[in-house]
Write a structure and sequence with these properties.
Number of strands: 32
Strand order of the largest sheet: 11-12-10-14-16-17-18
Strand content: 25-35%
CATH topology of the largest domain: Rossmann fold
Largest sheet: 7 strands, parallel
Low-confidence stretches: 1-19, 46-71, 78-83, 97-132, 158-164, 208-212
CATH superfamily of the largest domain: Peptidase S8/S53 domain
Mean pLDDT: 77
Distance between the termini: 50 Å
Shape: globular
Oligomer: single chain
Number of domains: 4
Number of helices: 15
Radius of gyration: 26 Å
C-alpha cells in the first residue's frame, strides 16, 4: 500500500516525555548572578560536551544554548573568586576550566574582518545579530564600536564586547506551572534581561499516515486526491540567466550525503569540528545544525520532514534533464532548527537567519508555525534582503483549520505588514483550499498545491506528503528562479502574487484569491494573457491605456493584473491591480474595452475580454 503523509501543526506532547514550554531570552553583559541561577533552575537538565583545551569564551559561544546549568556553575564559581571550575563531559569525564582574568559576562572577543565592504555584517555574525539595522544594534552593545569600525581596513583584527545572542531551552516539567511568573519577576528585577518569553513552542509541521488517521479537518474517504505541483518547462528554465541562487531550508535538516541534492558548499571550511573560516561554527561545509551545534545538519525526524521539503524546493522528482537545469540556478543551504521533539528552537532560528543572510541566500523556506513568535519576527524584519516563504499551518489539536486573521499563527501573521514574508496555504486538486489548511483573507497571500506531493525522504526513497509544509517549498522554488532576475524580496513577492490563477473557490480564503502559477510567474520578460488555461506571451498593443468604468485611466505599463472578479455586480466585474504614483493598489471596476491585442512570435492575436482569465502586463518589456 502506498503511504501518504499529511503535514500539519502538531499539538505539544509529540513524545510522552516532552516538555510543553520553551523559554527564550536575551541578556546583556552585566546580568545578575541571581538571574542566571533562576534561569538555570528553569532549564531542562543537559550535559555539556567539552573538549580540552577549551576556554569559557568557546563554551559560551558554542554550548550556551543547551548548557545553561554548566554556564551558571562557571559564573557562580568565578563570582565567588574561584579561578578554576570542573564540568562533566562525555562519558562522565570531568574537564577542568581555567577562568579568564575578566568578568565572564564582560570579556572581549577578537573578531576577524575579512572584507572591509562587509565589516558590519562580519562583526554581527560573531555577535549573533544581523540585519540592515546594524548601526543601532552595535550602538546598543557599545557606542564606541562604530567609531572603531570606521577606522578599520580589510583583514584587520579588533576586539568587541561579548553580546549574548538569543537563547532557547525547554522548561523543566516541575516548573511548567510557575515558569511564566518566574520569568516575569526576572524581567522586572534585572535590567540586563532584554527579552524573555515562556510559551508553547513553534512546531515543525508534522505528519499523519494515510489510512492510519483521517486527514485533520477533512472528510475524505478512500485514496487521497493528488494536487499537481507547478510545472516549469525546460525551455523556459533555459531562458533564465546563468545565476545560482541559494535557498535556505530552515527545518529538521537535509542528509548532506544524499547525492540527489544540489547543496551549497562553503569553500573556506572543511568537514569536522574545527573552524577554518573564522565564523566560530566548526565544519559548516553545507550549512549548520544550530540545535546540536554541529556542521552536520542531518534530518533525524522519522518522517524526514526537512528532506521532503528540500526535495520539493528543487523538484527532485522531476526528470533528470529538468533537475540538471534547475541545479544551474538553485543551491540548497541546510540549516537545522528543529530538536528531537519536533520543536522549533527560536534561538536556532535567529542564528540560522543571520547565517543565511551572511551567506547571501535569497529565499528562506519556513515550513513551521506556532501561536507565539518568541522574538524571531524581529530577526526576520531585520533581514530585509531575504524573502521568507512560510507555511500557513494546518488543522491541529483535533479542531478544524484556523482563520489566521482571527487566530494568529506565526510567522504567517505578519505577511500583511512585512513585505519580505510570503505566506502560503495548501490547495487540493480541484483546485481550492485543502480541507486541512489554515487560511486568511488578509494574512495568507496565496495557495499552492499541497495534497499528496511526491518528494524525497531518507534511504534514497520518495513518499507522498500533504500540507502547507509542502505548499510553501513549491513557492520557494519559483521564488528562487525569479531571484535570478529580480532584485528584491518585494519584487519577487509581487510577481508571484500578480501571476496567481484567481479561483472562485479561493475567494476570501487567501489575500490574492489565487493559486500559484509557476510558468506564468517566470514569463516576466513579456506581457501575458491567459485564455482558457493557455498562456499567450508577447507585447500588448491594444489597449495601451486602461480606462475603468469609474473614469480612471492608467497606462498599460502601470497595470500589473486584470482578472475577472467573479462578482454579479457588473460595475465590479474585474479586479485591477496597478502601480501608480509610487503606490500599489487593487480595486474592483468595469472596463471600457472589449478585447486585447497581443503581438506574439507567431503573429498578432486578438482576444475578446469575455474569453480572458488573466492579463499580466510587465512594467518594461525585455
Amino acid at each position: 500500500m502506498q503511504l501518504l503523509i499529511v503535514a500539519a501543526t502538531l499539538a505539544t506532547g509529540a513524545l510522552a516525555d516532552e516538555p510543553e514550554l520553551v523559554l527564550t531570552f536575551r541578556v546583556r553583559p552585566g546580568v545578575k548572578p541571581e538571574t542566571l541561577r533562576q534561569l538555570a533552575e528553569l532549564a531542562e537538565p543537559t550535559r555539556v560536551t567539552i573538549e580540552s583545551p577549551t576556554t569559557v569564551q568557546k563554551l559560551l559561544r558554542e554550548n550556551y544554548g543547551n548548557s545553561i546549568p554548566a554556564i551558571e556553575e562557571l559564573v557562580a564559581r568565578y563570582n565567588n573568586g574561584t579561578t578554576k571550575a570542573t564540568v562533566v563531559g562525555p562519558g562522565k569525564k570531568k574537564r577542568e576550566f581555567v577562568l579568564p582574568a575578566a568578568p565572564v559576562w564582560r570579556f572581549e572577543e577578537k573578531a576577524f574582518v575579512g572584507r572591509s565592504a562587509n565589516t558590519l555584517q562580519e562583526v554581527l555574525l560573531k555577535m549573533g545579530v544581523a540585519g540592515p539595522k546594524t548601526r543601532s544594534k552595535l550602538e546598543q552593545v557599545n557606542n564606541t564600536t562604530i567609531e572603531k569600525l570606521e577606522e578599520l581596513s580589510a583583514g584587520q583584527d579588533f576586539k568587541l564586547p561579548y553580546a549574548l545572542p538569543l537563547v532557547s531551552f525547554r522548561v523543566r516539567k516541575e516548573h511548567l506551572q510557575d515558569a511564566k511568573k518566574i520569568v516575569e519577576t526576572i524581567r522586572k528585577s534585572d535590567p540586563a534581561v532584554q527579552s524573555a518569553t515562556v510559551a508553547r513552542p513553534m512546531k515543525v509541521i508534522g505528519s499523519w499516515l494515510d489510512g492510519a488517521q483521517a486527514l485533520p479537518g477533512c472528510a475524505i474517504a478512500g485514496p487521497t486526491p493528488t494536487s499537481e505541483p507547478p510545472v516549469v518547462s525546460k525551455p523556459l528554465l533555459a531562458t533564465l540567466p546563468s545565476v545560482s541562487v541559494i535557498v535556505a531550508v530552515l527545518d529538521s535538516g537535509i542528509p548532506i550525503d544524499d547525492t540527489r541534492f544540489h547543496l551549497w558548499t562553503n569553500p573556506h571550511e572543511q568537514v569536522g569540528d574545527d573552524d577554518h573560516d573564522g565564523n566560530h561554527l566548526g565544519g559548516d561545509v553545507y550549512g549548520y545544525d544550530f540545535v546540536n551545534k554541529t556542521g552536520f545538519p542531518a534530518d533525524d525526524l522519522k518522517e524526514f520532514h526537512g528532506t521532503h521539503v528540500a526535495g520539493i524546493a528543487t523538484q527532485r522528482v522531476a526528470d533528470l534533464a529538468t533537475q540538471q537545469e534547475i541545479d544551474k540556478h538553485v543551491q540548497l543551504l541546510a540549516l537545522k532548527v528543529v530538536d528531537k521533539y519536533e520543536n522549533i528552537m527560536p534561538a536556532a532560528v535567529g542564528s540560522a537567519i543571520w547565517y543565511a543572510s551572511n551567506r547571501k541566500a535569497r529565499v528562506v523556506n519556513m515550513s513551521f508555525s506556532g501561536e507565539f513568535d518568541f522574538g524571531i519576527m524581529s530577526d526576520m524584519r531585520n533581514a530585509a534582503d531575504l524573502l521568507f516563504v512560510v507555511a500557513a499551518g494546518n488543522a491541529h489539536d483535533g479542531s478544524g483549520p484556523w482563520d489566521v486573521d482571527d487566530q494568529p499563527i506565526y510567522p504567517a501573521k505578519h505577511t500583511a505588514d512585512m513585505p519580505n514574508i510570503l505566506a502560503v496555504a495548501a490547495a487540493d486538486r480541484l483546485p481550492g483550499r485543502a480541507c486541512f489548511s489554515n487560511y486568511g483573507k488578509t494574512r495568507i497571500d496565496l495557495a499552492a498545491p499541497g495534497m499528496s506531493i511526491n518528494s524525497t525522504v531518507g534511504g534514497n526513497a520518495t513518499e507522498r506528503m500533504s500540507g502547507s509544509s509542502q505548499a510553501a517549498p513549491l513557492v520557494s522554488y519559483v521564488a528562487a528562479l525569479l531571484s535570478t532576475s529580480l532584485n528584491t524580496p518585494v519584487e519577487i513577492k509581487n510577481r508571484i502574487i500578480d501571476t496567481v490563477d484567481v479561483l472562485q473557490d479561493l475567494k476570501g480564503q487567501v489575500a490574492s484569491d489565487g493559486i500559484l502559477n509557476a510558468e506564468k510567474a517566470l514569463m516576466f520578460r513579456t506581457d501575458v494573457v491567459q485564455k482558457s488555461g493557455r498562456l499567450i506571451a508577447g507585447r500588448i498593443t491594444d489597449p495601451l491605456t486602461i480606462r475603468t468604468g469609474d473614469g480612471q485611466t492608467f497606462p498599460i505599463r502601470e497595470v500589473r493584473k486584470i482578472v475577472p472578479n467573479y462578482d454579479t455586480d457588473l460595475a465590479k466585474a474585474f479586479r485591477v491591480t496597478v502601480d501608480s504614483d509610487g503606490a500599489r493598489r487593487t480595486f474592483a471596476t468595469s472596463l471600457s474595452f472589449d478585447h486585447v491585442t497581443i503581438q506574439t512570435p507567431a503573429g498578432i492575436q486578438t482576444i475578446p475580454v469575455y474569453e480572458i482569465r488573466d492579463i499580466v502586463p510587465v512594467a518594461q518589456l525585455h
